[in-house]
Amino acid sequence: MNFRNFIASLAVLGSLAAPAFADDELYTKQFGGKPGMAKITHEMMVGVLADPRIKDFFAKTDIERLEFLLAEQFCELVGGPCKYSGRDMKTVHRGEKINTAHFNFLAEHLQVAMENNGVPTWAQNKLIAKLAPMHRDVTEPR
Ligand code: HEM
């Protein structure tokens, strides 16, 4: 590799690194960091568990653990300093018979929780955009 190419690669690496820094700001500033994300996932689950359309799915679930894992997962998805330690989405939701409507109801509760915690729409959309492709692993065709 000659010098010019070397500098060009540094520029590429630099531009890859830059958004990671900006994304950490997304987590800390827009989602309120660890306490903010814990509050959002808790309020989301309060909404889910009060929703007759989907609450029965969670009848046997350890909610405290689920909230912890969701906060960790969402933190990682918005570029925060976390590493999701739970099981993969396909394994967890397999056999639950979750459909697109259920998926959207849950997403609704997340959106309400983000809204109530002052997360701006553009930042809400960043998380939603990361979750949307998980639809195929979470739901089952009917
Ligand atoms: C993008 C959407 C979703 C994400 C990111 C998500 C994420 C998660 C995570 C991180 C866990 C814990 C994993 C673990 O225990 O290791 C979990 C468990 C669970 N999820 Fe989801 N989920 C989503 C959608 C849904 C929907 C729509 C339903 C049903 C309406 C649902 C029902 C459940 C249930 C019942 C469990 C607990 C399973 C158990 O107790 O073993 N999830 N989910």
Report what the structure shows.
The protein has a single domain (20-138), classed as Orthogonal Bundle (Globin-like). It contains 7 helices and no strands. The longest helix has 28 residues, at 3-30. The protein starts with a helix and ends with a helix. With 142 residues, it is mainly α. The site of protoporphyrin IX containing FE has 20 residues, from helix 3, helix 4 and helix 5.
Brief summary:
This protein has 142 residues and is an all-alpha fold.
Q: Tell me, what is the CATH class?
A: Mainly Alpha
Name the overall outline.
globular
Number of helix segments? Answer: 7
Main sheet specs: none
List keywords for this structure.
7 helices; Globin-like; 142 residues; mainly alpha; binds protoporphyrin IX containing FE
